[in-house]
Amino acid sequence: MALGRSHRVLAVTLALVTLSVASFDRDNGAVHARTPSGPPPTATPAPIPSAAPQPVVALPVMPSDADLATAASTGVADTPPVPSGDVDVLAVAAAAAAQVGTMTTAEWSLDALADSFQGDPARAFAFVRDSIGFDAYPGVLRGAAGTLAARAGNATDRALLLKTLLDAMALQTRFAFGTLDGALAQAVAERTMVPPARPLQNGRAAGIGPLDVDAIGARARRDDALLRLTLGARLDTMSGATAADLAPEVRDHVWVQVAWGTDWLDYDPTLPDSTPGHPLVTPTSTSDTLSDDSRQSLRVEVIAGSLASGSITDGVVLDQVFDAASISDAQVFLYFQPQADDLGGTITNTLSGVQTWTPVLMVDGEATSGGAFAAGGRGTDLFGDAVDTPPLATLRMVVTRSVPGRADESGTHVLLDRVPDRLVDSDSIEADDLAPLAGDQTGPLALGVMEQILVSTGSASPWLQAVRRGVAADYIAALMATPDSLDEHKLGDLLYPLAVANASLVMASEQLAIPAATVPGRTRAYVDSPRVMLVDIGQSPTDASDFQFATDLLLDEVRVVAANADATREAALGAIWYGALESAIETESSLRRAAGLSDEPISLAGTSLDMSQPLQLLDGEDVPATGARALRDSLDAGSLAVVVGAPATSRTWWAIDPTTGTTRAILDPGTGGIAGGVAWGAIKHLPPPPRIGGGGGANVWHVNPDGSITRVPRGGGGGPPMGPPPSRCGGGQEYVTILGCVSIPAAWAIRIGVGLVVFAVVVDAAIYLFT
Q1: pTM for the whole thing?
Q2: DSSP-derived 3-state class of residue 522
Q3: What per-residue confidence (pLDDT) applies to 173?
Q4: What's the CA gap between 309 and 468, in Å, rounded?
């Protein structure tokens, strides 16, 4: 049972909560569907048990027009802070357990929530109607658990949540489908601006963890003010959509029907005054399931470009499609392995000068290999024959989101690009024209980077994040207590703490940036399609002696809706403010990570870090003749750019949609992120904690029905653990994937040594957002 498998953590958590199901046959464990009869029930809300009061987190406030000059001069710290003392990971685990205790389990766990209704379907109906807000977007984005965590969803996701709760009561249910007319669709779309009548806990304190909200707010206010002052009169051309404009996206309506006597009772909780038995529209069809084409999805592709016959030929070497609702809670990593059945194969490739690599996509600890591609090389094979394979010129990851009724949108993350700007569109490229490919005997350094793919649908659970932080901290403590066995752990287990730490970026975005971009009664910001953030760690692509970390807000837009036409300018300002907040979160978390990794200087590059330089506004008429290719492409596509420094030499700028105000901080070659690096040898080592009982393994976490946490040493009894003991791969498996046992990528293991790689990953996780 791999610690890295987040769905197992959730499954065990929920299994520990008692579930009362009507008509449960305890002799054989079967659940029999029941069919109530009689008049339709009255949907009367019932209270949910409350936990301890949660800390209040004040959201950053967007500067007003009158405050711009003052906000623009706000002082911020662009150097990493000085860490105070050592990291006490056991204290982190204890704090996480206490944090979970402040949250009501029935407000975060589907099973506990269903149990709280005591078999009364009317109470489940009232809960969705009164406590789950409405967001206008097409198709399935969040699913049942995600809609509960987000506290909002469209009609389809709310129907999924309600059906899940009713199914837990052993009721026979199905989906009903209909089409809303124009006036009714507009009324439903405008429901987006109506807050829930009985709001649930927001979990903000647990979601943002130890991030410095004041520092994020100060940086965002400064950047937002500088951007707005630079944009000047261009702000007057920007406006957001109104809620009424979203009516076309809600016309396809979905709700739930419950078998009631000999008939079916409609459960449509869409409007605040909805009651059982009164749907908004007559159903045109019904089904037990939702169709696949009703779901929002993400496609992850890795594309390798090789130079052949004077031009670059692209080949898709990995292609995976995921349902957005299911992948949003997964731990997803991309890395590259030499294609070899054993170490001997790697040696053969090295001696011949020809190397073949394979992309590996690991989802919750389960690895899937893509197709092989050649890194290129010239030399002789083992028989002395000449070898000359097409050189690898480009390597990129493309993530495409598909939303029903919309055109697909893609984001491209460049992993390698050796083609000079002057030859981008040429069909007469020679191998000598390509930029040098940094590498060593194990291959290109660019293939020693690991990417975590973080997906945000608005449904990240602060409750589950707090539990995972505690489990990860306990696991780190166990690793530090037995450093001699680090190379025997599964890669999914070793990356679990880092995945949890990086997930704090998504949590901060959903719990801090998006709410702060909302002006109650005037505008509303929310996620309407899957967003993708990337975090890469590991080998520097240019220097084998350096450890690199970087983030990329690849697909990061959110929808900011205006209540009416009078608030559309505020919606556009909210989009700019959100972009500044996202950049501030990225920057402040990277500064924290840099401070924790090393006492030696760390190079950092990012748009917000350069804002002391002069800013220049460019549009399509001001495309520089030289400079970053991504900047010129963005301007050619119609975007505005607020360039930091001289356009011909700048590596950082802000890309701004001239119509909506959607804003992204860009770091050349076009990534929405920040990057940093430090020498491997300068990475700190955490002091080992006191040896933990129970054979030196991680503690067992029990989430009790009341939401409290019990932690006992492994082997101390008390039921199934939240954090399973680390499973061992065994020696000699650093280069292969066998029976699901994925160990350290070969490019890291050969160049750096397994122990140092693991220490870097673990220290990174422990420092970055854990303290």
Answers
A1: 0.88
A2: coil
A3: 97
A4: 51
